[in-house]
Amino acid sequence: MSGERPEGHERHAATGTRHAAWFAPRIRADLRHQDTLTASFAIIGWACYILAALMLSWVVGALIHNDIIARSVADDVASAPAAWPAESRRKALESARDYNNALQTVFAGRIPADAQGADGAPLETADGKYANTLDVDGNGAMARLRIPKISVNIPVYHTTLDNVLDKGAGHIYGTAMPVGDAHTYSVLAAHSGGVQGMLFTRLNEMKRGDVFYLDVLGGEHGYRIGDIRTIKPDQMEHTLQMLRAQYANDNATVTMVTCTPIGVNTDRLLVTGVREPIPDNIPPADTQSDGLLIAIGVGLACFLVAILAAILVTRWIRHRRREQRASSGHGITVHG
């Protein structure tokens, strides 16, 4: 009879009502029509999508968390010497200068990057004088490194051991303490592309003429980049000695090192800067900003506003259509 529904229709309808409302409409439609294979693939796809989103969220969260910690430590390292008596700061600086002056005698002009002792341990782990010189916070931090253009604000620690590079930049043993004196050459290394934080991930964005800053014992030192090069790992010691001879004759010079390309790490990116006076040649660090990060923030804000506007307009259009259908329905007269 015309008033009866087919048995299959009732079965399909009953099947559809048993599934959770959060299923995507396409999946619910497949299940109502007993297309379980298609629905299964769709469910697996959604599960993979959710898993990938969770993993990405974890990575981003870890990066942000570690960056916040590094910035906090760096700020503490920069501000700590301000609370010291002037005599303590003078003695710390004098000790660092004595260490730098002795480098030529101790290492005969070499930069023993990654050198090991007879027992196979890194040389720096057995050098107590090195560890105790310019230890600002008692945990091995010697300075704060800021690169405003790429939003870097991290502590600089003694050595480049794994536990050090997990939390900031490391000072390469055998190079000068970065106190900013003429004729000194310091080398700093940090990871890129890891969950330890952004660190030197964006170092490849730096160009000649860009600036970076080191805060040491209460002083802010500005450096202008003049040399950028990529080398193989086995060229490290020779290249560092060449850069020292080329740039560190008259001014303090600092080279920043990281692995490249990100995720491959077959080469080393070296970015070298020479100290120039603040504010005559280099503006103070607090006046500089990350233009790319600002642009991304503005773009993201505009994107979110556009999405919100689209949602509001869509809801308004649907509301208007419902009102129009309701008003047109009220105008119909039914004759018995």
From TrEMBL:
GO molecular function: hydrolase activity
Keywords: Hydrolase, Membrane, Transmembrane, Transmembrane helix
Record carries keyword Hydrolase: yes
Active site per UniProt: 191, 259
Protein name: Sortase family protein
Transmembrane segments: 36-64, 292-317
NCBIfam families from the UniProt entry: class_C_sortase, sortase_fam
InterPro entries: Sortase, Sortase_C, Sortase_dom-sf
Keyword hit for Transmembrane: yes
